[in-house]
């Protein structure tokens, strides 16, 4: 039998990329969902894959997005919560603000799709102990916000270099992608243990031992220089997962399915200078190999399977201050 793995897609929309990058025009909530979702859903259907989509509540609240979001649920995919306002500085919110943020997203996601989320991923991998408390209190089965890599500060530096941000905007984003210490977090599922509660954590998988990212956006970045190098990199990552007994949880983004001809406004994003056809070929090759070597599940299914063995307990630790108001709305 093949070992199990999971696959998810963070459904970040065009406005959320512009907002995080500090670009004007996001306030009108420009969307590429009508263009990208049929492409993504057909891609998954052709490969018989059921995955987890983490939806942003603000998108679910807008009538113009109802049809593509309903199509996700109708296709049988799991629906997760990706916050309402998609602010990667969610960890700066107070606990009541976090509760409001998650509850509001729940409400609109359920109205749009008919499904109430049982899993959460913070925008920009933002996480705090207050968020964990809220999730446990609201009956969530798992969190999937940790990204165990040493490269967070480097990714943040690149983002700041390409963005036009005020000092206040940089302050809110100062922990975007996490600190160097994130690389020391576990790769395998575990239970957060805090304040008498427990919650399963399903980390986004990075390369075992080296803790460098392996999700498709990074492969596409490499593919812009050498498609062979991107393929070899992914093969090495999967081989290390099997060698170490790591059941990978792989991450997708909408931009993995969009080329430079689709969203020129997002040219600042790595790999968005590649043509759509090349990106889809790289993604197709990677997912076909992934599906061949692993039995691909939703994250909820993966979390349920992880419970068949005792999971280690981990006490929450974070490198950022909590309880400061960081919202812009």
Could you explain the architecture of this structure?
The structure is a single chain. The chain has about 325 residues and is an alpha/beta fold. The chain has one domain: TIM Barrel, CATH 3.20.20.370. It is about 40% helix and about 10% strand. The chain has twelve helices and ten strands. The chain has helices at about 15-20, 35-45, 55-60, 65-75, 95-115, 130-135, 150-160, 165-170, 215-225, 225-245, 275-295, 300-305, and strands at about 5-10, 50-55, 80, 120, 140-145, 190-195, 195-200, 250, 295, 315. The strands form two sheets. Strands 1, 2, 3, 8 and 9 form a five-stranded parallel β-sheet that branches. A hairpin with a 2-residue loop joins strand 6 (about 190-195) and strand 7 (about 195-200). Helix 2 packs parallel to helix 4 (about 65-75), helix 9 (about 215-225) packs antiparallel against helix 10 (about 225-245) and helix 9 crosses helix 11.
